[in-house]
Design goal:
Largest sheet of chain A: 2 strands, antiparallel
CATH topology of one domain in chain A: MetI-like fold
Number of domains of chain B: 2
Largest sheet of chain B: 6 strands, mixed
CATH topology of the largest domain in chain B: Rossmann fold
CATH architecture of the largest domain in chain B: 3-Layer(aba) Sandwich
CATH superfamily of the largest domain in chain B: P-loop containing nucleotide triphosphate hydrolases
CATH superfamily of one domain in chain A: MetI-like
Distance between the termini of chain A: 21 Å
Oligomer: heterodimer
Number of helices of chain B: 9
Distance between the termini of chain B: 36 Å
Shape of chain B: globular
Order of helices and strands of chain A: HHHHHHHHHHHHHEE
Strand order of the largest sheet of chain A: 1-2
Strand content of chain A: under 5%
Number of strands of chain B: 20
Chain lengths: 270, 350
């Protein structure tokens, strides 16, 4: 419950609600229009197309792998940023946030130089293992990871910062070594921040278009397929697939949020 | 020695340093480190726990040299302010946390501290007293050789603090585990301490039994900190017949000679407010060598006591209980007789 406050006047609050309401309407009306334009038949039609289902499935799976990698590589960095001071920390923070500022098509082109056919990593990896980042889910995950990893690092960092260092100290005195303290105290207590980060990374990955389409047009993720349908057939099928994809993506997002925040028991989180 | 030995510990943290800290005490005793905030109490405790490595010196716990050991090997029970219970674990899981906590030991400490009925609770659902007992149980489950307390009671309200302090004192006596307890509260130090050390700016000022430190402070800072209200610059005139006679302004004070340095001239005469006796008129008791007619300057209340500021030819502070306060009509301007026993005056070189 927010405490009732008498400081702002009714008139001010009412005016702000009217202005804020315009923004809320601006966000919601296009989505409602998107669904208003659909019929059960149009949704069933696109749902019956194998390449539509494949694209949606690819987006969901690639985003899952992306969140996994973001967790593996982002959580240790988040811990360092939360718990230690080191020379160049400000620079590291800027690097972490950099993908948020880089236009996604630019990110895609930059990634081509590294993971493309002749890229500094893409070339050797392909020569050594035969695995290619282009034309595979590998490229999709790379593109998604580049633009969405900052969310995991930043949210996990907030999670680690919220853990009282005295709890870690007391755990040490109770006989736990630093690795054990991290596993048994720090990680569980930062869990909420980490899950928030992974959820944001997942959500960002599901919606990624620019970096993915440049690094690897095929296999098509859902946003790329929607664009493809739009170019080929106009609004009809593309809007139906858009509505379908949004439904799936939002359901998952709500589910993950519930998993991350939902289990609040009286007197503390689990 | 089988207790705790801290020898010549120095630590430089840049902005703050510990200088040549040495003390020792027996196993089973509680050693209180008293000092204002910023004195380095927490840094000293965390150095003993192994979170800082001293630049020089040695720390021995129960005969083991732990100076270079990591915290997890030192067998320390660290009690933080608010106790730092793991909020994501139940009481049972908290107590089971230490690797050394085998099931029979866990059962034993839970029973000993009366926690069996709380094992499924989360820390957030515990009272202050329950938290204290869970934290002790968790530390005991790890079989500590030394308890360290970092002002565990300072965030609590006065009533709860008094209760928990008494409970803690009883438990520490029963457990027989040596403990170092840091606080800025002299009352807490008096209740808990077998020995007291006063710390200021990273240096120990004085170490001793509570009565020694409170009645015979080593310097002005310690005197101030342990509640000596009257400190009078005095000139020693003569030392004879077991008494030191000295002048304060145009008055003469007599202190028992406890082997005062014969070359000393300028001293501070320290008088605790509870050692100043107030009465209607001078008594003929020869034991009270120091009797002065004094005027009440101001009165303030200290909970159950009144603090009376007097002018006896020099400033003097006394305590009076309510009945005495009413009997003597101690309002500002009133005139009373103030007596100070010669044994109650402590001299500090100046």
């Amino acid at each position: 419950m927010t405490p009732k406050t008498l400081v702002p006047s009714r008139g001010l609050l009412l005016t702000f609600w009217l202005i804020g309401g315009i923004l809320l309407a601006f966000i919601l009306i296009p989505l409602l229009q998107l669904y208003a334009a659909q019929t059960p038949a149009s949704l069933a039609h696109v749902a019956g197309m194998a390449e539509v289902r494949d694209a949606i499935w690819l987006s969901l799976v690639a985003a899952f792998f992306t969140a996994t990698f973001a967790g593996i590589f982002g959580v240790p960095l988040a811990y360092l940023l939360a718990r230690t001071a080191f020379p160049g920390k400000a620079l590291v923070e800027v690097i972490v946030d950099l993908p948020l500022a880089v236009p996604h098509t630019v990110a895609g082109i930059a990634l081509l130089f590294v993971f493309g056919r002749t890229g500094v990593i893409g070339g050797p990896v392909s020569a050594l293992t035969g695995f290619q980042f282009w034309g595979t889910i590998g490229g999709v995950v790379i593109a998604m990871l580049y633009v969405s990893a900052p969310y995991t690092v930043n949210a996990a960092r907030v999670g680690f910062e919220s853990v009282d260092p005295r709890l870690e100290k007391v755990a040490r005195t109770l006989g736990a070594n630093p690795w054990s303290v991290f596993r048994r105290v720090t990680l569980p207590l930062a869990r909420r921040g980490i899950l928030t980060g992974l959820t944001l990374t997942y959500a960002r990955s599901i919606s990624e278009f620019g970096a993915v389409i440049i690094l690897t047009y095929y296999p098509m993720t859902a946003p790329v397929k929607i664009y493809d349908l739009f170019l080929q057939f106009g609004l009809g099928d593309s809007s139906a697939m858009a509505a379908l994809y949004l439904l799936v993506a939002l359901s998952l997002f709500i589910l993950f949020r519930h998993l991350a925040y939902g289990r609040v028991v009286p007197g503390g989180r689990q | 020695m089988n207790g705790i030995v801290v020898k010549n510990i120095s630590l430089n943290l840049g902005a703050f340093a510990l200088h040549d800290i040495s003390f020792e005490f027996d196993s089973g005793e509680t050693f209180v480190i008293l000092g204002p905030s910023g004195a380095g109490k927490s840094v000293l405790l965390e150095t003993l726990a192994g979170f800082y490595h001293p630049d020089a010196g040695q720390i021995r716990i129960g005969g083991r040299d732990v100076t270079t050991m990591p915290p997890e090997a030192r067998r320390i029970g660290f009690m933080f302010q608010d106790y730092a219970l793991f909020p994501h674990l139940t009481v049972m899981q908290n107590v089971q946390f230490p690797q050394r906590a085998d099931p029979s030991r866990v059962r034993e400490v839970l029973a000993r501290l009366g926690l069996e009925h709380l094992t499924d609770r989360k820390p957030v659902n515990l009272s202050g007293g329950e938290k204290q007992r869970v934290a002790l149980a968790r530390a005991l489950a790890a079989d500590p050789a030394l308890f360290l307390f970092d002002e565990p009671l300072s965030a609590l309200d006065a009533r709860t603090r008094d209760t928990l302090r008494e409970e803690l004192k009883t438990l520490l006596r029963q457990l027989g585990v040596p403990a170092i307890y840091v606080t800025h509260d002299q009352a807490e130090a008096l209740v808990l301490a077998d020995r007291i050390a006063v710390l200021r700016d990273g240096r120990l000022q004085q170490t001793g039994r509570p009565a020694e430190v409170f009645n015979a402070p080593a310097n002005e800072f310690v005197a101030n900190f342990v509640g000596v209200e009257t400190m009078l610059p005095a000139q020693i005139m003569k030392v004879s017949d077991n008494f030191v006679s000295m002048t304060v302004g145009d008055k003469t004070l007599y202190a028992l000679d406890r082997g005062v340095d014969r070359t000393l001239r300028s001293v501070l005469a320290c008088i605790r407010p509870e050692d100043v006796a107030l009465s209607h008129s001078p008594s003929s008791d020869a034991g009270a060598r120091n009797q002065f007619t004094a005027r009440v300057v101001s009165v303030s209340t200290l909970g159950p006591l009144f603090k009376i500021a007097l002018d006896a030819g020099f400033p003097l502070v006394a305590y009076a209980a309510k009945q005495l306060y009413l009997d003597l009509k101690l309002s500002p301007g009133a005139s009373v007789t103030a007596s100070i026993d010669a044994t109650a005056i402590h001299l500090i070189a100046r």
